[in-house]
Request: fold
Amino acid sequence: MAARRGIGSMAQRTLMVLIDLDETLAAFEKHFMIKFREKYPNEPYIPVEKRNTFYIAEQYDKLNFTDDSVRLELKKIYRSEHFFRDLPEIEGGCDAVKEMAEMEGVEVFICSSPLFQYKYSAPEKYEWVEKHLGPDWINRLILTRDKTMINGDILIDDKIHITGALHNPSWKHVVFTAPNNQNMKVKGDKLRLNNWTDGTWRTMIEDFKKRL
Ligand SMILES: Cc1cn([C@H]2C[C@H](O)[C@@H](COP(=O)(O)O)O2)c(=O)[nH]c1=O
Ligand SMILES: [Mg+2]
Reply:
């Protein structure tokens, strides 16, 4: 891991920050809802602010659709070509990430899980990062289905329960507030980051740097 020389030649380690993509920088839920309503204008839907499970299908499963095939078909919306490429930005996220990467003693990587049906989601995540953050960020995109295996000091991610092969990952989980977790209690010593716009992220990163 990189180290930098600080005042008085005290070595200060670089803070390694991992940042999730879907629902932390890219508005997966909003885009899904718009696409769902376009495809099924006469079916019930769940407004983004009423979402309360991580997996969309879990909550949509409880709706009374007039056509039962909707239940089985809705996953096709986010599995389809261009869905991930066209996700809108979450307000302030990309600017915050670029600014964070300029902070002294901080390295930022994007850490995202492609769908199991990776055909479109994996390459389109690269497209998204290139378009919204810039081509240099291609070098900083980590795609993995198991984030516990990735080394870092912090992982900012909307998924409240991140599990994988490692029970004690190296990073501390900062839960990014999203529709799926807005009413859930953040347990243990996890922190919450509610948005990218009120500047809280800066203070949080500075605090983490001090604790290295
Ligand atoms: C809401 C939701 C998400 N997914 C998929 C979409 C992405 O590939 C991952 C989430 O990635 P992240 O790096 O943890 O943000 O999960 C899904 O399959 N079904 C859903 O309902
Ligand atoms: Mg996410």
Observations:
- The chain has a mean pLDDT of 95.
- The CA atoms of residues 9 and 122 lie 43 Å apart.
- The pocket of LXEULUCI (ligand 1) is lined by residues 20-23, 28, 55-57, 112-115, 121, 159 (CB under 6 Å).
